[in-house]
Amino acid sequence: MRTRTRTLTGVLAAAALVAAGCSPTTDDSGGDDQKTKTQSGSISYQAADNQGPAKPVDGATRGGTLTVMQPADFEHLDPARNYVNTQQVAGGLLYRALNGYQEDGTGKLLLVGDLATNPGKDVNGDCKVWEFTLRDGVKYEDGSPVTSKDVAHGIARSFAPALNEGPHYLQQWLYPGGAYNASYQGPYDGGKPAPDGVTTPDDRTIRFTFPQPHCDLPYAAALATSAPVPAAKDTRANYDLRPFSSGPYQVKSYQRDVALELERNPNWDPATDPIRNAYPDSVRMTFGLEQAQIAERLVADGAADQAALSWTDVPPSVLPRTTGAGVADRVVKGPTQYNWVLSINTQRVTDLTVRRALNYAVDKDALLKVLGGQAAGSPATTLMSPTTAGFQKYDLFNAPVTGDKAKVAELLAGKRPKLVLAHSNLELRTQQAEALRKNLTDMGFDIVMKPIDNSSYYDEVGRKDNPYDIYLSGWGSDWPTGSTVIPPVYDGREIVAEGNQNLSYLNQPSVGAEIDRVRKLPAAEQDAGWMALDRTIMQEYAPVVPCYYDATYELHGSKVGNAVLSDAFGIISLNGIYVKK
Amino acid sequence: MLRFVVRRLLVAVLTLAVISLVTFGLFFAVPSSPAKVMCGKNCTAADIAQVERRLGIDRPLPRQYADFVQGVFVGRSYGDGDFRQDCPAPCLGYSFRNNQPVTEIVVQRAPVTFSIVLGGAVLWLALGVSLGMVSALRRGTAFDRAAIGITLAGASMQVYFFGLILLYLLVYSTGLLPFPSYTPLTESPVRWAAGLLLPWMTLGFLNSALYARLSRAQMLETLSEDFVRTARAKGLSARQVHTRHALRAAITPIVTIAGLDIGTSLGGTFITETIFGLQGLGKATVEAVQFLNLPVVMATVLLAAVFIVAANIVVDVLYAVIDPRVRLS
């Protein structure tokens, strides 16, 4: 997931969400939790995990209306176009993909079959052919059965250029090399009903045949891309406004930018669903309040807002009022899947010693202070975030969070490298860049600042021949394993002229070879492989300075029960949430 | 009278045409590409070109303006094949971000702003004018001085300050009032009024300050005019002198200002809407600017112009009604 932009306080807040993968975030998860935290995510083929109904939540009661207050409306609810965490969690109430995440809020994250009876069968053991069998008894809101043809149609329509905002993993894997939709643009205007490599031998089976092995397909099948869309109900661009429900809720009314009201889908059978408890009778999402207003209302906990929550972070101005009795226990905080690093353009800063010196020099605390301190994140030392499966914290440099001046001086040995620091012109990013300039100048570097208009920031630094040496960037995984962090951001073979995600332009054959090796491992063994490679890259090339793990700091009202942070999405999960009587 | 109205309407249409042309030029010629904003994260140059074609913004500007005008009068459609979206007249554009014709958005948002402004205006005019009149008649008394003091405070304050204080006192800390919300008047008049009480109070207090000061000054001036002395000399009661003669003369400039104030506010009260979390035209406009949702910007700017032009015509007509000396010809 491309970077998420932290929401800014003030009236311009909504704009920050445009390019971002998400809603904003913070945390206070006190570095301590994170140091010891090991993500225990895995793919489960255990029958007990894959069978509905979902395990009941202690003390949970059925009924009531849950309210979710958000600063801005969802960009998209259409499963083919759904690529932002808030949309993914909201969409999860309306439709079910082949797979999904079963979470209990303690860091235990299991990938299980959602529509499918299990997370996918690797038919030949080479990760090239995958087969899913749909559960019996899964129905749409009108009572008709969900078929594998509908899943195929959902995937097919994601090839349409007009519906291209979602993730493109399945599409690229089916049509590797070049643009995924060069030869197939969906089932519209005479296109065939399903892309090459997707077949449905019968109404309950769907089979994927990829030219190359993809052992993490079970994760890709958890994205909304594989949610079923019956061809007869496909309203194309307007599907965004009214997805046809296969989940526990259906759209009752939707006024764009104002409110989305969900009511129970009477044909959803909990016995078919191992993931969702769906305790509230209805869910109401309201849009258009400022970040601070939402926080104030949730702090005040007025009668109308007691069954409400928000996925938006508490802004720094309201933070002090969230620590008292009656409020502190309504805070949900923790790391998200985003990690912010100072990318070092290795094409220009070719001296490894300088890159190592930068790793000793950066004052991570100062960068966090700009965003509100501890609530906004915690200092990072790795490439992947603590929410990644198999995460093990390591710190190669052991520098204090404010930097180690003596060590920098020793490495630089009297030299004073001159570096061009590019930054987005957003207020907070400018403040961070200014803090960085001061910090690095003090540490013995000469820094030239280059502000870039925020809307073209990632375009500029993503140009291979960009004239900058260092720049801050954030990256979040698309699913909680290293396979959507290390390969997209550190594989030199992916470098192109423009639109790069490998912003340090690290291009090392040994890294590429290791990526290929890990990719071919069975999914369960990949986690350790990515974590080891994370460390190796930092050890041997130091292409970035890991700066901070993004964190979220959210509030809910006093009548919301079991509001836990989803490790898969980095915001409060709605699957096991309930409204207290 | 009829000739006057017809002539003014013709001028108004011309004004709006010019405004639409200027707005169009300003917003559609901006360097940043709305297609890019819409296209999102994993977008190639080919994708962007396709979005531009769908939006119709790959065509030359004059052609786009012609398309726009055509949409307003006879409707138009966007895209082709399975992704064709029809936009019936009066089509002010299509918001691909919201998947809605812009006209629909405006129809949804306008009642919110109307409710805020009209309710607030009733309050601020009633409060302001009566306070000003009474102060003028009791010039120099404690009431007058207190009224002047309070209105000075009101006139110096801003919506974003006073509104937040009211929110804090009446909503966050005491829970006396619910957080403002909009319920259509047709659905429940009680909930409509209850949800808008805070913005009305805020606008009522702040704007009445100006009107109180203005009407006090006007009234004082009128009371010293010859015709008032004549009326008194004729032996009319004080009440008749004040309401039938003095007030009617004093109120003319106030009608002008009120008309323009209301006209301007109807185009969007962004700050008030933002503070109280109400989804009116003002918020729609600012959000549209942020997302480069140009058709919405275009429509709301035009609509704001319509309100101001219309308010001007209404004020002129009212003039003739209030002041018999004014002839509309």
TrEMBL record, chain A:
Residues 112-492 form the Solute-binding protein family domain. Residues 1-19 form the signal peptide. Keywords: Signal. PROSITE patterns: PROKAR_LIPOPROTEIN. Residues 37-49 have a biased composition (Polar residues). One of its GO terms (molecular function) is peptide transmembrane transporter activity. One of its GO terms (biological process) is peptide transport. GO terms for cellular component: ATP-binding cassette (ABC) transporter complex; periplasmic space. Coiled coil: none annotated. Residues 22-64 are annotated as: Disordered. This is Peptide/nickel transport system substrate-binding protein. It comes from Micromonospora humi.
UniProtKB/TrEMBL annotation, chain B:
It is found in: Cell membrane. One of its GO terms (biological process) is transmembrane transport. The chain crosses the membrane at residues 112-134, 146-172, 192-212, 249-271, 291-322. CDD domains: TM_PBP2 (cd06261). GO terms for cellular component: plasma membrane. It is a multi-pass membrane protein. It comes from the Bacteria. Residues 110-319 form the ABC transmembrane type-1 domain. Keywords: Cell membrane, Membrane, Transmembrane, Transmembrane helix, Transport. PROSITE patterns: ABC_TM1. Gene3D superfamilies: MetI-like. InterPro entries: BPD_transp_1_N, MetI-like, MetI-like_sf. Belongs to the binding-protein-dependent transport system permease family. This is Peptide/nickel transport system permease protein. It comes from Micromonospora humi.
